Amino acid sequence: MAIQTPSLDLGAGLVQATASSASRGYWQSVARRLRRDPVTLICAGTLILIVAASLAAPWLGLADPYKTSMIRRLLPLGSPNYLLGTDELGRDMLARLIYGGRLSLFMGVTPVVCALLIGGLLGITAGFVGGRTNMLIMRVMDVFYAFPSVLLAISLSGAMGAGTENTLLSLTLVFIPPVCRVSESVTTQVRGFDFVDAARASGASTLTIVRVHVLGNVLGPILVYATSLISVAIILAAGLSFLGLGVKPPEPEWGLMLNTLRQAIYVNPVLAALPGVMIFITSICFNLMSDGLRAAMDVKA
Amino acid sequence: MDTVIPVDRGGPAQPLLLATGLRKHFPVGGGILGRGRKVVRAVDDLTLSVAKGETLGVVGESGCGKSTVARLLIRLIKPDRGTMVLDGDPVDEPHGITVNELRRQVQMVFQDSYASLNPRLTIGETLAFAPKAHGLPAAEARERVRDLLSKVGLDPNNYAERYPHELSGGQRQRVNIARALALRPRLVILDEAVSALDKSVEAQVLNMLVDLKSELGLTYVFISHDLNVVQYLSDRVLVMYLGKIVELGPVEAIYGNPQHPYTRALLSARPSMDPRKRTKEAPIQGDPPNPIDPPSGCRFRTRCPFAEDVCARAEPALSDTGHQSVACHMSIAGSGHSKAVRGGAAAA
Asked: pLDDT band for position B134 (50/70/90)?
């Protein structure tokens, strides 16, 4: 062939030079950037700790979170045998906070995962197919989007009645529109790239093109967005429980605990604030981690 | 199924691709239900044929519909009207071949070498995608990838596992060319395929295209705004203006004896290598008119120094002048234009 050219030699030289640092994929470079981001690492570590503690709660040798004691009500922090004191019915706060993480995290993560599946599917379909399908899906989403998320969650839960399942259902419905919208816009953007046209020109089926060329490029941004939604979901779930629309007593759940401890705020304000502190730490960790992920993934080369 | 090498069916005289009356109007704005909508007349009743083994150059200003033609020919967009025949087989019609079969034989190279490669896939995965989608087993696809990479002058051992961002623009465009060849097509449409490259890299890629053409028996449709590159590569040249063909003919005729005022203006606007032959003034004034509402009659008349009444009244047909086809009233005998040639003694 005529083109044994200088550029080729240059390319070969380049390969020699970088031969030690083997060709890296996108996710490897994301991982490398994350490793240099202390804030994200600390947040991720905290979250892992909270999740692990909640999951392992029965084996941590904690007190019974349901056992009440009328003589040991509202003990302050640092009381003997009650490291974080007791609540208004004399139940151990430490145990209730750790056990409470189970329900709170479950109610934060589950709706987002469900919304991710449904909203993501709808959004990618709308974005890739375009035209009337897009119009139909997105306008329906706009109807839901028109309500403030808190109001929508409260009215849905209120209409369906209190209870864990209904809270999950209403939160899922609240989160489908934003996930769908983000998926749609990312997919529309990816669909405009020439490599999708090139794939279409190769005669591959639509499903194959979506699987190979679209999913890999849209899942990252959608997952980042979903991570930031988890903190909102935890706060909303806690809010619903606080209003008596979510988890029913005596289940330990951070929002519900905040509600029942509210009368104690003048007696023992630090104690009353503890569930709120847990909600705050968890949601800010999810938020900062989502920011870190976005920054790590938002690089071209 | 993939191992079937497309055979020459109609013999060398039958055009490889024959497009008749292709039209694409893009709707813009307007009513929700499509009433009273305006359209951009991107390509209007375009008829062209591509002979086997030739390179057809397509030139024109930005926005004249060159890329739309490319996308129509490979059916990335569906024409509003018009028919296409690939070596005797009507495309997307009963008794004809399907669009997918057309795409087996017609492939395209895009201008933006970065946007046309999936950043999440290695070069090898990108090249193997089309053969695998057509049912080639993984081992054979890997072999095909190695073969393709060496065909475009990239070492398969070094490049198959790399990602697009690790390659230079020239290397990426070589990969794009390899991808277009992955299904062993007969016709390759090159849409500004070398326009974004450095001049030195551009020359290497052009030479490679010439070599690949003779090695694989390809036919090219080469779309570019660079008149010098088109002259170097093409056998025939098609000049477009606002979605219409204004002149079509062999490269020597178009460059040596341009007939249409627009072609002449384009050619005289070329920067000269000789500093003594500087371009004195802009040969055509202004921008092309809005394709939403193109001028009546001849679409070039608003910028043409020879425009007369007849140019606004009637649209000049593409007519043969002996060497080339020209869509201008001055080249049509008895058209009513004061400079029209007499009695059919065309371009004598």
From this structure: confident
Query: Regarding the domain delimited by A49-63+89-297, which CATH topology (the fold level of the hierarchy) does it fall under?
Result: MetI-like fold (1.10.3720)
What span, in angstroms and rounded, lies between the C-alpha atoms of A167 and A160?
9
Q: Do A193 and B107 touch (CB under 8 A)?
A: no
> What mean pLDDT is reported for chain A?
84
Residue A301 has pLDDT above 50, yes or no: no
Radius of gyration (Cα) for chain B, nearest Å?
A: 22
CATH fold, domain B17-29+37-240, is Rossmann fold (3.40.50)
DSSP character at residue A67: -
How many Cβ contacts (< 8 angstroms) between chains A and B? 112
Checking ipTM against 0.90, whether it exceeds it is: no
Task: Determine the distance from the C-alpha atom of residue B61 to the mean position of all C-alpha atoms in its chain, rounded to a whole number.
Answer: 13
**Segments of chain B assigned to CATH 3.40.50.300:** 17-29+37-240
Contact B263, B246 (CB under 8 A): yes
Q: Which two tokens stand for residue A176?
A: 């489908």
Round to whole Å and give the CA distance between A148 and B264.
Answer: 63
pTM: 0.80
* Structure-block tokens of residue B205: 């890629």
Write down the domain spans for chain A: 49-63+89-297
| Closest chain A C-alpha to B236 CA, distance in angstroms | 24
Is pLDDT larger for residue A299 or for residue A16? A299
Q: How far is CA B33 from CA A225, B37, B44, B105, B128, in A?
A: 34, 9, 24, 38, 42
Of all residues in chain B, the one with the smallest CA distance to A10 is B168
Express each pLDDT in B222-250 by its tens digit: 999 889 999 999 999 999 999 899 999 99
A5 pLDDT band, cuts 50/70/90, is very low
Least CB-CB distance to B171: which of A11, A193, A213?
Answer: A11
- pLDDT-based confidence at residue B35 (cuts at 50, 70, 90): low
- Tell me how close the Cα of B39 comes to any Cα of chain A, in angstroms: 17
pLDDT per residue as tens digits for the range B164-180:
988 998 999 999 999 99
Q: Which residues contact B187 (CB under 8 A, 6 or more apart)?
A: B16, B17, B50, B105, B106, B107, B218, B219, B220, B221
B189–A contact, CB cutoff 8 A: no
Using a CB-CB cut-off of 8 Å, the residues of chain A touching B207 are: 2-3
